[in-house]
Amino acid sequence: MGQSALSIAVIGGDGIGPEVTAEALKVLRAALPDVELTTREFSLGAQHYLETGEILSDETMADIAKHDAIVLGAVGGDPSDKRLAGGIIERGLLLKLRFAFDHAVNLRPTKLHPAVKSPLEHPGDIDFVVVREGTEGPYVGNGGVLKQGTGSEIANELSVNTAVGVERVVRKAFEIAAQRRNKLTLVHKKNVLVHAGALWQRITDAVAAEYPQVEVDYLHVDAATIFFVTDPARFDVIVTDNLFGDILTDLAGAVGGGIGLAASANLNVDGTYPSMYEPVHGSAPDIAGTGKADPSAAILSIALLAEHQGFPEAAQRIRNAVDTEVTDRTGSRTTTEIGDAVVALLAEQ
Ligand code: IPM
Ligand code: MN
Predict the structure, then answer these.
(1) What sequence ranges are listed for the domain Isopropylmalate dehydrogenase-like (predicted)?
(2) pTM for the full model?
């Protein structure tokens, strides 16, 4: 059972981020009428950085850490703006939050809605979840450059894989599989990345022994991309490292009917810091302020928040309401109209 009060740090971010986040919070309030929800907005993102020079200070981090959960819209500005080059916002804000708050598990479900068209001609019944490692791999920033700008430049990016990091994400994946269709696929590239691959396989085998009911298989990441397109319905739970998971979840979003419905949770598995919920899509500055942004992915991310904060029934009601809204949607609805429609559907359940 969830708490009677929830405090949420809100990072709307850039572009459409604040717009979709506002709808998601509206839906959460409607879904949890008996919970005292308090929100605090944090002004962060590319825009904030360009205006103030702050990306994410230690003081702001400490303030965010005091909350039960974080809701993030999207961060990122104009990719051609040289002041934002080098992934300064991605690394300094988004990844800093994921790493500092130990978001070990990046959960990204994909479910093809019957009313949504997949680009695949025969998509089948797509319903899987990618459990992506969130704090390690080549994302850690362990690397460097030598002889920069010369013809003999050397650039290294080391992929870090720890037994602790791998085990906690693999465990979570098994837990999830046991609550779903009891099928788990480890995706890696162990024929080439032999050291990391062996660690992932060994830990998967060890945890598998505790879950005899879960059928386990393995795919190289390149082969997995083929099945994502030819037979995505074969997947139930996929567990993989940070970079493979990043790539696969964009493909998952595409085959699952578009990034407009792709939700995600960055989970801190031991409760030491708040988990963070964000749609997979970006800040889409081209449509910001037009009311064209679809808040469904942000709303489905809020459903993940509700679920992980101990309100699984409310989470299911939010998902049902989104399902119905997507089915009923005729013509084009604005961002707020979609949020209002989901709220109205919640009231009917
Ligand atoms: C994602 C994004 C991020 C990632 C970027 C923006 C750092 O692509 O959330 O999938 O690579 O994890
Ligand atoms: Mn990505």
Answers:
(1) 7-342
(2) 0.96
